[in-house]
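Example 255.
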Amino acid sequence: MRRPVVMGNWKLNGSKTMVTELLTGLNEELEGVTGVDVAVAPPALYVDLAERLIEAGGNKIILGAQNTDLHNSGAYTGDMSAEMLKDFGATHIIIGHSERREYHNESDEFVAQKFAFLKKNGLKPVFCIGESEAQNEAGETETVCARQIDAVINAHGVEALNDAIIAYEPIWAIGTGKAATADDAQRIHASIRAHIAKKDAAVAEQVIIQYGGSVKPENAASYFAQPDIDGALVGGASLDAKSFAAIAKAAAEAK
Ligand code: PEP
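Predicted structure in complex with phosphoenolpyruvate:
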């Protein structure tokens, strides 16, 4: 039985006031909600404040982050290490997001290195994969997802996916309001799981596969009703406490 994980990716949004209001609101909204892991990934500068607010709310929320570098210390100006994230209690770290793949030229191999670095440091990768609109229209979705996953499997073995999270995020659905249908998302999630199962059925069975791409309170339940959709990675709707909590509650109720 996979426990759903609903995670908010705040991207480059936040201020001390906004982080305080959002997490205070979430602490209230999530009171008594069970059966779902709820995580947030603030911008790095606000991880410290977020840790304190989450603690003040009784630790109902898991702290995450949006990136890691490949070194824990040294002469790497501007970088931020896994150990530093751990120091502030962050555990769920997003890697391979399409915005980083696109704007920072992160390759499949580089993302796979980050994946292994997080695991080595005892952190949980939230490993984003997904196809572009052109790839989708060309019928290449399953091939693209398999290639992105194989970069991790080929370098680190299929067991590396134990205790990790995969976030399937069709790029054309991110921030566009043009979400994949629940049936289409389920079909791709099943193909991702089947691809991993070819290497190791037990690993495939336990791995959490989130859907991401314009998830809102209005469509969340339709995704969570699908057998291979184990939660969501949420961008825009995670910036509003009521909307994000409604998505988390939908996951808790469906699973
Ligand atoms: C994301 O950026 O991971 C995302 C899914 O964004 P949105 O929910 O806004 O589409």
